[in-house]
Amino acid sequence: MSSKENKARVDIYAKITDRIVAELEKGVRPWIKPWSAANAKGRITRPLRHNGLAYQGINTLLLWSEAVSKGFVSPTWMTFKQSIELGGHVRKGETGATVVYASRFTRMETDDRGEEVERGIPFLKAYTVFCADQIEGLPEQYYLNPAPATDPVERIAHADAFFANTGAVIRHGGNQAYFNPSLDIV
C-alpha cells in the first residue's frame, strides 16, 4: 500500500473517531437515542439512501449525529452527483456528511511455496452525502414528511407475552428508555 493510500485510510478513521469524540465531549453519546423526540413525530427513522435503502453500521450513527446537530428532518441522503441525476442541486454553502463504504477484493498472489493463492484485501472508501433538506429541486417524494403513525408503538403479541412472563415491572412514560436498578423497573 502506498503512503498516499495509507494516509487516506488513516484520515477516514481519524475523521470518524474525531466526530464521535467531539460528541462525547459535548456530553452526547451518539449511540444512545440519537434523535430528537420533537422531530420524530412518533417514529424513529434510519438514514436512507436516495433509493430508499437504509444505511448500515457506523454510517447510521454518523448520519443520525449529523441530522441532530444540523436539525435535519428528512431521513434521505445522497451524493452531489445523485442529486443532480434526480434533477436537484445542493444549495450553495451547504456542507455534506462523510459516510464510508467497506468491502474487500481478492487478488491472486504467489505464496512462499510458489503456489497461487487468493488473498482478500479489505478497503475503506469515504464519500460525502447531503441530506434532502440541503437540496432543492428534487422530486416531491424526497420532501414529503411521512404521515404520523396512528399508534407510534405497534404492539407485538409474542414480545408482550415474553415480558409479561418475566415478572419485570415495566413502566411507560417520559422520553427515555432505560432500566433503573435501584427501583428494579424498566
Quick description:
The chain has helices at 3-25, 37-40, 58-70, 80-85, 157-166, and strands at residues 77-78, 89-90, 97-110, 116-131, 135-136. The protein is an alpha+beta fold and 186 residues long.
How is this structure best described in words?
- By secondary structure, the protein is of the alpha+beta class.
- It has one domain (3-154).
- Helix content is 30%, strand content 19%.
- It has helices spanning 3-25, 37-40, 58-70, 80-85, 157-166, and strands at 77-78, 89-90, 97-110, 116-131, 135-136.
- A 3-stranded antiparallel beta sheet has the order 1-4-3. Strands 2-5 form a two-stranded antiparallel sheet.
- β3 (97-110) and β4 (116-131) form a beta hairpin.
- The longest helix is centred in the first third of the chain and has 23 residues, at 3-25.
- The chain is extended.
- It starts with a helix and ends in a 20-residue tail after the last helix.
- Residues 34-42 have low confidence and may be disordered.
Biggest sheet: strands side by side, in what order? 1-4-3
Number of helices: 5
What percentage of residues falls in helices of 4 or more residues?
A: 25-40%
Number of domains: 1
Radius of gyration: 22 Å
N- and C-termini, Cα separation? 50 Å
**What average pLDDT do the residues reach?**
80
Give a count of the beta strands, DSSP E runs of length 2 or more. 5
Low-confidence stretches: 34-42
Order of helices and strands: HHHEHEEEEH
Oligomer: single chain
